[in-house]
Structure formats: C-alpha cells, structure tokens
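Report of the visiting student (M.T.), summer placement. My assignment was to run the structure pipeline on a short list of targets and document each run. The first record concerns NAD-dependent epimerase/dehydratase domain-containing protein.
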Amino acid sequence: MDARRVCVTGAGGYIASWLVKLLLSEGYKVNGTVRDPSDEKNGHLKKLDMASENLQLYKADVLQYDGLLSAIQGCEGVFHVASPVPEFHGVLINPEAEVIAPALTGTINVLKACSEAGIKRVIVVSSSVTVFMNSKWPKDKVMDESSWSEQDLMRKIEHWYGLSKTLAERAAWEHAEKTGLNLITVCPSMVYGPQLQATVNASSLMLLTIVKGASEPMKNKLWSFVDVRDVADALLLVYEAAEASGRYICAAHSTYLHDLISKLKSIYPNYKYQQNFTELQPECRLSSDKLKTLGWKTRAFEETLIDSIEFYQQAGLLEK
Ligand SMILES: NC(=O)c1ccc[n+]([C@@H]2O[C@H](COP(=O)([O-])OP(=O)(O)OC[C@H]3O[C@@H](n4cnc5c(N)ncnc54)[C@H](OP(=O)(O)O)[C@@H]3O)[C@@H](O)[C@H]2O)c1
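After the run finished, the structure tokens were exported:
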C-alpha cells in the first residue's frame, strides 16, 4: 500500500479542486476521479502545482462500481466529494435520476469499493442540509451534529437535494456500522470563495445572483456559510486527526441575507443586489464547535466575500 496516496471523487468540482490542490501541496499523491478526463472543464487540475508528478485522473461515474474500484485500490484514504448539486432555484424534472440515485447509490458504491480495497479512513462530504431541516429541534438551541433532517419534511416540500444528501449520509453510516469501515462525514453549510474550475457551481451562482439581483424573491433567512478553502482544510484535518470520529458540521459564519447584502454593499456599493425578499424566517444557528476542538480555523467573513467578488470580476462573471 502507498502510504500517502488518497482518492478524491469528483475531483474537478468546486470543493474537490481546492481539496486536490491542498493535498498536492501537503505531499499527497492523489487519484482523482472525473467523469471525463479529456473534458477541458477538468483542465485546471492538470495545472495545479505538483499535479504532473502526483495527480492521476481516473474516469469514473459514481454509478459504475468498477471504475471507482480502480481509482480507490492502492489508496490509504478516500474523500468522497462527488454528488450532484443542482441550481438552488432550478426545477428538477426527474429528481430520482438527477440527484437521489447519484448521491445514494454513488455513496454506497464508493463505500463498498473502500471496504473491498481495505481503505483506512473515508471522508464523505455530506451537507448541513442533512442537519438543519429538523422541525423538532428547539428553536432557541444551537444545532449540533445530533440533529438529523426529517426525510418526510423534505419529501413534502420537494427538497430533493436535501433528501439526496440525507439518504446518502444515512446509508454511509449504516454501511460503516455493518462493516466497521472507518468513516467520517463533514457537513458544510453554503460554500463561497474563489473557484479553481472554469464552470460556475451552484453555490457560487447563488452569491452571484445575490449581487446581481434576481426577480424572484429570496428568503431573508439565516444563512450559514463557509469559505471553500476552509472546507478543504476541514476535510484534511478530519482525515489526519487520529481522534476524529462521527459527523462534523462545517459552518463558519451565520448571517441574515439582509446583513450579508449590507456588508457587501459597504465594500461594493455599485451592484444592484437582491431587492426582493420574503418574510424573515427565524432559524437555528449551527455549531462547528466539534470541528474547532480539532483545531479548525476559519477565514474572516469579509475575506471570503472579497475573494469571491474579486474572482467573479477577474473571471468576467461580474462587471467591475
Ligand atoms: N457548494 C456548496 O455550497 C456545498 C455545501 C454543502 C455540501 N456540498 C457538497 O460538496 C460536494 C461538492 O459540491 P460542489 O459545491 O463542489 O459542487 P460541484 O462543483 O457541482 O461538484 C459536484 C461534483 O460531483 C460530480 N458528479 C455529479 N454526479 C456525478 C456522477 N454521477 N458521477 C461522478 N461524479 C459526479 C461532478 O462531476 P461533473 O463535473 O462530471 O458533473 C462534480 O465534480 C457535494 O457532495 C455537495 O453536496 C456543497
């Protein structure tokens, strides 16, 4: 076994690209899975420092077991990041095929391959949406990892992405309990910050939409967000910390949408910004204290916002 070789699924995506960059900079060899290694949208990976020496790309769809197993075999650890993230206001025509099967069957496939390959530790990127959609949690109590989102509630309101992530994380824990696989799940809140990939991912599009303003109203709810670089740090931290176990909420800042916009306006006064809101919705705050006890540090709120906007400007996604 190659002691410092790890696999990252969905390596070309937003979070995974920053994780691959971090792993390479820390001296890891990385087997990255992508659906099409020749697609130019994965070209940024080949340009990362140390990529020519230590990054190998494998063609793998998470619905196809054999491709996953080839990428995972010979690794010490696996970071399962690949999972479809639809646009936040988009409508899914076939939720089962578009999000639920790739999230759920994909996670089961990855974990089975990890068991078959004798992987030492698996980190599954889940989401805070598996935590906070819990109507039974007391409104005045900060939410921690003991909270699980209610599947019936998500079905009722057709929150298919939330359901896909909750089914996948639940299945991951069932597999780990049955097999003894060393599993850790990380549940990031909304992720912002600069992109390494050329295509715009769903959470970056959300921030761009807030800045540009959309005609449909947005909920003035309490948003938790976290910098993409801090998510990559968290993933490596829980992988390397021997004492890490269980679930980890990964949320750095909480702010109502109005306050987020006020902060952005104070730095960039000339954008249109979202004008149209529905009622303020009181919600529970999320605690990342468990992650912080492992030594997780986060960037300041302003740094994430400024680095995001400057990236959008440089990439031509937002006028200066
Ligand atoms: N961004 C956020 O705010 C946020 C918050 C919490 C959790 N997360 C989680 O973080 C992970 C990464 O999300 P992201 O924000 O980085 O989004 P992203 O850039 O859209 O990445 C999603 C990745 O999943 C891959 N994928 C989707 N379906 C696949 C399939 N059937 N087989 C193989 N790969 C597949 C995509 O590959 P292709 O490029 O081939 O489509 C892409 O690499 C996801 O698990 C997501 O649920 C994201």
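Residues 10, 12-16, 35, 61-63, 81-85, 102, 106, 125, 127, 165, 188, 190-191, 201, 203 surround NAP (CB under 6 Å). The mean pLDDT is 95. I thank the supervising group for their guidance throughout the placement.
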